[in-house]
Design goal:
The complex is a heterodimer of chains A (about 160) and B (about 260). Chain A is an alpha+beta fold and about 160 residues long. Chain A has 2 domains: about 5-80, Ubiquitin-like (UB roll) (Roll), CATH 3.10.20.30; about 90-160, DNA polymerase, domain 1 (Orthogonal Bundle). Chain A has helices at about 25-35, 90-95, 105-120, 125-130, 140-160, and strands spanning about 5-10, 15-20, 50-55, 55-60, 75. Chain A has a 5-stranded mixed sheet, sandwiched between helices. In chain A, strand 1 (about 5-10) and strand 2 (about 15-20) form a beta hairpin. In chain A, helix 2 crosses helix 5. Chain B is an alpha+beta fold and about 260 residues long. The chains are: A alpha+beta (about 160), B alpha+beta (about 260). The interface of A and B includes residues 44, 59 and 68 of A.
Chain lengths: ~160, ~260
């Protein structure tokens, strides 16, 4: 099968790859680019573990074809920390024990990041809604909700 | 599993490419890429079009045209489509709503396709390059449909005449036990003068509750007034049984939820 060229910006770095036509973005990121932070859970659009941010919108990389992302700006959890300092969401997930097995965590964090990018001080209901496409089988969700609210408070305190 | 994707600038060219056996149209990917990921070997190639009209919403007075590639998130956030926001938000979580298209929703099998239930209640028409088809006819024949859907078109209802309800076990997002959309017109005395009620998950695709609609005419929206409609709600239904609910359960709870919708 003919390879197709794909270029996109991943976490601030230009990437160029040749992929098989029809390759999902999830597989391109994990197998070609080497960014294994998006996880392949259900491959059905149900679990949210593969969530990434494409051009500012939360998307499921398992249902997105890599070649449709040519020219896109993509963010994943692996690009959140800066100079070894964790992003406030990552710090909050650690501090509030919002991660157990960790499989859902990258997707949860990207869903939460989109929320906080648009709504810096969300209500609890807004957090629940923002995470409603992401499944966690360990935590019971409450620590995750608290982590997002904690990160939002940390952001607002830093901004003040 | 890799599939060859062909992208065309025009719907006309996409339609020509779709004639090849095994090709499917790629909208947001939430149905067809999912099918491919699941191992559906009937999908051997994908076709999509970037024609701009597929991604636009046009509102002229109360006439609405939504391009088939418009996503649920776009509909939910559109300032002139606030009436339908609840139905658009009923679809999936935030990521799915950023991807799932109105055209794709017409093909979503139960228990999915909640927005198509709303479109059925709105008496929408479905456009392809060959012309417009009433949504009821389109849904009945969708399995054999090979033409790219270009838009859905409908008359925007008055805010208080359109009602939508999705029932799911998981809150706030969950797969439908059932969904109901209704467009009700009331006479000055409050009695129902016209009703269109559409049901999701009560068959393999959205269906009209014709018996309930008929039983509502001339009745007031009170507990006693709607009783005949509730008694007739399950006429002609053939609900799916899936891990969310059995057909029996769906039929049992349908009158309860229809009652809540009508009395809301």
């Amino acid at each position: 099968m003919a390879k197709v060229p794909v270029q996109f910006t991943l976490n601030g770095s230009e990437k160029a790859e040749f992929v098989d036509s029809g390759t999902t973005l999830l597989n391109a990121l994990r197998d070609k680019v080497g960014d294994t932070s998006p996880k392949g859970g259900c491959h059905q659009g149900t679990c949210g573990a593969c969530s990434v941010i494409i051009d500012g919108e939360l998307r499921l990389s398992c249902l997105t074809l890599a070649e449709t992302c040519d020219g896109a700006v993509i963010s994943t959890t692996s690009g959140l920390s800066e100079n070894g300092v964790l992003h406030p969401l990552q710090r909050a997930f650690l501090d509030t024990f919002a991660t157990q097995c960790g499989f859902c965590t990258p997707g949860m964090i990207m869903a939460a990041k989109v929320l906080l990018d648009h709504t810096p001080n969300p209500s609890r209901d807004e957090v629940v809604e923002a995470l409603s496409g992401n499944i966690c089988r360990c935590t019971g969700y409450e620590p995750i909700i608290q982590a997002v609210l904690t990160a939002a408070r940390a952001n607002s305190q830093n901004a003040a | 599993m890799a599939l060859a994707l062909q992208t065309f600038a025009t719907v006309k060219d996409a339609n020509a490419a779709l004639k090849a056996q095994g090709t499917r149209y790629l909208g947001g990917g939430t149905l067809v890429v999912r099918a491919a990921n699941e191992g559906d070997v009937s999908v051997s190639g994908l076709v999509t079009s970037t024609e701009p009209s597929l991604s636009t919403i046009a509102v002229a007075g109360d006439k609405v045209r939504i391009g088939a590639s418009v996503t649920m998130a776009t509909i939910a956030g559109h300032p002139e489509l606030g009436t339908l926001a609840k139905a658009a938000r009923a679809v999936g979580g935030p990521a799915i709503r950023n991807m799932a298209t109105v055209g794709g929703n017409l093909f979503a099998p139960a228990p999915y396709g909640d927005f198509a239930v709303a479109l059925l209640a709105l008496d929408a028409t479905v456009s392809t390059d060959s012309g417009e088809t009433p949504i009821e006819t389109f849904l009945a024949n969708r399995d054999g449909s090979r033409a790219v859907v270009t838009s859905v078109n409908f008359t925007l209802p008055k805010a208080d005449s359109f009602r939508f309800l999705k029932v799911s076990r998981v809150k706030p997002k969950g797969v439908s036990v059932l969904s109901i959309a209704a467009v009700l017109q009331q006479a000055p005395d409050g009695t129902v003068s016209a009703a269109r009620i559409a049901l999701g998950c009560m068959a393999d695709r959205p269906m009209r509750a014709r018996a309930a609609e008929k039983a509502l005419i001339g009745r007031s929206l009170t507990k006693d007034g709607i009783a005949p409609a509730l008694a007739a709600a399950s006429d002609g239904t053939w609900p799916i049984t899936d891990p969310i609910a059995s057909a029996w359960y769906r039929n049992e709870v349908l009158p309860v939820h229809l009652g809540r919708l009508l009395l809301a």
